[in-house]
Amino acid sequence: MTDNQEATSRGRLSVTRADTDGITVLTLSGEVDYESAGALAGVMPPADPTAGARIVVDMSSVTFMDSSGINTLVTAYQTTQAAQGWLRIAGARGPALRIVQMVGLDALVPCHPTVEDAVTA
Hints:
Layout: E1 2-10, E2 13-20, E3 23-32, H1 37-43, E4 54-65, H2 67-82, E5 86-90, H3 94-102, H4 105-108, E6 111-112, H5 115-120
Parallel strand pairs: 3-4, 4-5, 5-6
Antiparallel strand pairs: 1-2, 2-3
Helix pairs in contact: 1-2
């Protein structure tokens, strides 16, 4: 069941956030770069040490990501881990997958082919 859904847009990135059964799914579309990484950080759920955020970032429609996007995801990973939660990446492909693999983010954050796989892992 979806509790809420909201969309945000900045530059060439749009982010849709849906909260379902205690899991936040952030669906990204476009480019995650210096100008848009703040929009992604802004929709991340706040760290709640009593509940532990569970977040899936759907990157299936991301066409480009630079170090700003990587830094935002690393910060989100660290925040969720500190709060006994988790962060997972779903659907990364093409140039976005290449940068995730090149910097070793896939060794830190579990990557899954689909949102469904990430949610049920």
